[in-house]
Amino acid sequence: MHYSPVPMHIPDGFLTIFVSVICWGITIFTLGLSISKTNKALGEKQIPLMGVMAAFIFAAQMINFPVAGGTSGHLLGGAMAAIVLGPWAGMLVMTAVIAVQALLFQDGGLVVMGANILNMGLLTSAVGYGLYRSVSGQSNNKVKLAVAGVAAWLSVMTGALITSLELWLSGISDLQVVVPAMLWVHAVIGLGEALITVSALGFIFRTRPDLLGEGSESAMGSRNWAYVGGLIALIVVLFSPFASSNPDGLERVAGDLGFLNAGQSAPYSIIPDYTLPFLGETALSTIAAGVIGVLVVGVIAILIGRGMKAKA
Amino acid sequence: MHFDAFDRYHEKESFIHHLDPRVKVVVTIVFIVSNALLPDGAWMAFAFAWLFLLLANVFSKLGLTYTTKRSLIALPFAFIAITILFSMPGEPVASFKLLMWNLTITDTGLLRFVSILIRSWLSVQLAILLVATTRFPDLIHAFEHLRVPAILTTIIAFLYRYLFVLTDEVLRLMRARESRSAASAGNRSGGGVLWRAKVAGNMAGQLFLRSYERSDRIYNAMLSRGYTGHLYTLNPHEMQSRDYFVTAFAIAVIFIVQIIGRL
Amino acid sequence: MPHSHPHTTFSIPKNNEDALCVQVRDLHFSYPDGHMALESVSLKLCDGDKVALVGPNGAGKSTLMLHLNGILGARGEVEIRGQRLTRDNLPAIRAMVGLVFQNPDDQLFSPTVFEDVAFGPLHMGLPEEDVRARVDSALEAVRMSSYKDRLSHHLSVGEKKRIAIATVLSMNPSILILDEPSAGLDPRARRTLINLLRELPITMLVSTHDMRLVQELFPRTIVMDEGRVVADGLTSEILEDEKLLTAHGLEKP
Q: From 1.20.1250.20, 2.60.40.10, 1.10.1760.20, 1.20.1090.10, which CATH number describes the A17-246 domain?
């Protein structure tokens, strides 16, 4: 059996340093949160469990089924990992999978790994788990499975959308091309994801319902995850048609925010053509702008984290 | 399955093989960052970066073209960048008609497209050399040294150990599926797409349960040998003066490549 | 000393009666689903004993083994070298009881042989030089010194089994407990393993279906069925009792 790469893994060279660093910032922050949450919430048994589950996701990605015309459906596993292990552990497991794929098989780059973890590990876990959590208290397994399917599909779409935005910000492709192209392709890939996730979960419901019930790892995530997942999903649903039908609008917004130039000219210099008005067009202002961007994201994430902690 | 289907390490007694894994990880990352920072069309700098790669190949004793031969893995992704050939404003280089579109390749578009491909092609090669000359457990130790949180390196170590065991199980499940879905002459085997997806999902579910139960047994084996929730590791690596020298040399070369790229 | 049990009476080979290694008194255990896995199990092992544990699948052999180092525990008493097993002395007991699981892929969970053999001594809190010395002597004991830097997934099943034994020998245990050591081995690997077990100068309790192994290596045999000890005595006498063997699904080698 050969190892076959999956289309969402961005190789090195395709993202600018600017975009890579911002993605690493978000990824490192979120992983830090996952590690402290996992250390607190889960027992010592979780280390071997997460380790073997990472190998499980890796191996499960090889299971495929023929669809038509030589194409096949298979699993990415972000939603599945988060649903069976809880969101934080799911993120760590997916991070390990993506890291090994990049390190061992060069499937996805090293410097862009922060972006790949964000797209395929963190966002898929958050969306997949969040939507599923909103119905996990339900007694009707059919409803749960249906929602898990939608969650799995949306998790793939979210990853695809963010991936295409990163590519666009790096000046790799035009928005009006990359967003619809990625979303169409992944709408189909997402169907495979949804089908496998649903039938795998169905199998677990039938044979070991205790693993997914209340009190299991799966129920570890706070109920607020339902809001987080719902919110991201809503943004994706509303944003995608807007991005693909009205790219000029989005480009203007990004241009006004300074992102567009930052992305497109960044390969030329570590200091992108990206300024804050009051500092003038200097190296300092560019760096300051980058730092502020990362800080804003960080603060938002901290606030979300605080909010969840306070309620939990 | 033969065990080395997933092994990328290539055993050799070479200078590069014997370097501390940290050195190789750091130099690889600096090299890839440097490539990302090189401007479009910095042909001289690209050429020098490539020379650096060839040199590394030679010192690894794997052969001059070892990484080149294996470097096409990122190529399919280039497809996504193809539209910049036509969309960047600039002087037309060539134009042709494809179906209903009139496509014009511009010089800036071409410059950018080729530059992206070269950056990606150079970067992936050093990553290939890294895993070809470093055993994966040593890479994990390098990350431990470089302050990657222990919980992540531990999960990665488990993943590496059990990826061979579990992909073997997948292979057995798939073979069992194949041997049961033989078609009678003239008929297609299996049901519709939904049915096939369900079979695949059941396999994933089965694999999940087996893995879950395995993690229980591993946990017991760990407990039996004194595990109490804290993991201790011994790190068999120590930086030699040679390692410091190589790091300094490589970073100096990469710095010069950056300067050449901006002349 | 004669032991009584539902079937016949066998004599137990005399070893060093004063150096009691393992003493189990009146162990009961049932799994959460209500299945009774152990019912009033009692036994004694002295230093130097090499004892086979036989019985059909589901007889409770593995469950009993998991009690001997406190991974499972409910009603009853386990004493190792005179120390009664409690929550507080678990680490000390686990260092004395070297438990090797049936599937070496569960036992060997580290990427390299060295890391796996070092796991036990490291987690006993030993300093680095001691850990390294113990790894060397444990690998020496199973004749696998040259495998120290190998990757675990590159080993054959027979090699994995031997390394699995080294992973607990490195903790210098008082007793070695093996679950199905010869299962899944080809004849040559099995022979190597038998020779190794014969040479190891350590108290042993070995669960197995391999009756030829029992006959060849173990002077004493304990038969379990349905969670109870149904016979305990000289292997030579037990293997002659065909009624007992057939009653518990065993075959004379």
A: 1.10.1760.20
